[in-house]
Amino acid sequence: MLLVSGLFLGAAQGAQPPTRVILVLDASGSMWGKVDGKTKIEIARETVAGLMKDWDPAIELGLMAYGHRREGDCKDIELLVSVSKTDPARIVKTVNTLHPKGKTPLSDAVRLAAERLDYRKSKATVILVSDGEESCGADPCAVGAALKKAGADFTVHVVGFDVKKEERAGLVCLAKNTGGQFFAAKDATELKAALATAVKQAKQTPNVTIIAVPRRGAKPFASTDYVSIHPLGPDGKPAEKQITGNHGNPTRFALPAGRYQAKVKVGNGSATAEFEVKPEKTTELIVVVGVGKVRITAIPKPDAKPFKSTNYVGIFPVGPDGKPAPKQLTGNYGNPTEFTLPAGRYQAEVTLGKGSARADFEVKPEETTSITVIVEVGTVRLTFVPGKGAAPFPSTSYVRIYPLGPDGKPAEKQITGNYGNPVTFTLPAGRYQVSAKVRENWSPSEIEVKA
Fold first, then answer.
1. Taking every annotated instance into account, which residue ranges of this chain make up the domain VWFA (predicted)?
2. What is the spatial distance between Cα 247 and Cα 345, in angstroms, rounded to a whole number?
3. How far apart are CA 440 and CA 196, in angstroms?
4. How far is CA 348 from the centre of its chain?
């Protein structure tokens, strides 16, 4: 479902306020590392110098660095050039004086840059260039989310320069949580392109607003998981690769004139919508993502208290024939567990220890469905001793659990096993044979487990 409206933007009433940006440069010791035979700090110096040659005077730029004065000091963060009318020569000269030495307190640097931009009262953008992950114990994800929530219009664009894939998560999350973009730059050419794009985006004013709702006429979702924008080609097909993306609700983008497809994801549901951006007009889209929620609580028997947690809850779509799909759509653990799902019929499989149970349910748009699943399991704690009243063995070599059949005979195959003393098992209600090995001796006994 898609609603599109275009509003003409008249001539500006007076001058537009300047765009205010702080560039945060990594000057930690790792910037002496080399890319294509040249140190990363040299590449950064040359890239900034090139960027300053054609600097837009409408953008006020400040410069901050970290790790450039002291080794091992997470407080080594300094605003080198305050935000004001940009002096390109001063920026270049200051960057050329940086000599990498220390750690990577990138989260605190971004937080300080936000404060210097007075981000709570006005639009503010930070562009971070880092060649590695946070090394001072802070959480970039949490910092980004907090700054976005407190800011008037705050964004961090992050350029990961020669950053290993396994070290990118925090950098990506920092950008995503503030509505910015993450750029992976493996060399000088890509660093130059990434910085140029980040600066361009900092100046742009959003002209597209996307609002996601569960059904037509309903209140918008509190947030979306992600909204990606894909240009439409001459054949009307969307490009596989997005040109930008964000999360939240509404989400806003600055896009050149053209035709696009928006892909909106909420929980495990998604929807697409095509729209057109025209010069000097704003576009608003209302996209219906028909999802609802389910809340699943697992208990051992009717009217019992819920389990503290589950091992896993899997969600399987139910087909027209009433049968669950062989492959799950999603899953999680905990108790209760909640899922956001497309409208439809499903089956939940709840696993606790070696027990499990299934239950069917239906999800409707905008509604929350609550179900209770009875998983008839109990917990048994086994302690092994050499004799009545004796102290427990230090440990067991192994403990095997076999279900007992109606004839009282144990199954050939064990249901589970472990070692230690005591050992604890969560098992379906029923009778079992316990076979414990201590040193070289196996000793069988029978137990009953109740839910």
1. 20-199
2. 27
3. 71
4. 24
Task: Please report the pLDDT score of residue 17 as a whole number.
Answer: 67
φ, ψ of residue 31 in degrees (nearest 5): -70, -5
Considering the domain boundaries, does residue 2 fall inside one?
A: no
Residue 76 · residue 70 · CB < 8 Å: yes
Paired tokens of 107: 């989260």
Residue type, 312: Y
Residue type present at position 387: G
Closest residue by Cα to residue 189 from 36, 332, 69, 323: 36
In a domain, 94, yes or no: yes
Q: Which residues contact 22 (CB under 8 A, 6 or more apart)?
A: 61, 62, 63, 64, 79, 83, 113, 116, 117, 125, 126, 127
Domain that holds residue 413: 378-449
CATH of the domain at 282: 2.60.40.1120
* Domains held by the chain: number: 4
**Cα 125 vs. chain centroid, distance in angstroms?**
21
Instruction: Tell me the Cα Rg of the chain.
Output: 29
d(CA 221, CA 274): 20
Q: Are residues 43 and 179 in the same domain?
A: yes
Q: Hey, what amino acid is at 136?
A: C
pTM, rounded to two decimals: 0.65
Enter the tokens of residue 39: 């140190």
Q: What DSSP string describes 136-190?
A: SS--HHHHHHHHHHHSSEEEEEEEEES--GGG-HHHHHHHHHTT--EEEE-SHHH
Do both 108 and 187 map to the same domain?
yes
- Neighbouring-strand partners of residue 276: 259
What are the 10-residue block averages of pLDDT along the chain, 451 residues in total? 32 55 97 96 97 92 97 97 96 97 97 96 93 96 94 92 94 92 94 93 86 95 91 95 84 90 96 95 96 97 95 97 96 97 98 96 96 96 92 94 95 95 95 92 92 87
**Cα–Cα distance, 125 to 282 (Å, whole number):** 22
My answer on whether 24 and 93 are in the same domain is: yes
Q: How far apart are the first and last CA of the chain?
A: 48
What secondary structure does DSSP assign to 248-268, as a single string? SSSEEE---SEEEEEEEEETT
Supply the pLDDT for residue 234: 95
1 in any annotated domain: no
Quick check: 385 and 394 in contact, CB under 8 A? no
Same-domain status, 53 and 192: yes
Predicted local confidence at residue 127, as pLDDT: 97
Which pLDDT value is given to residue 254?
85
Cβ count within 10 A of residue 366: 15
User: Given strand 330-332, what is the order of strands in its sheet?
Assistant: 330-332, 312-317, 344-352, 355-363
Residue with the two structure tokens 């705050």: 154
d(CA 279, CA 257): 6
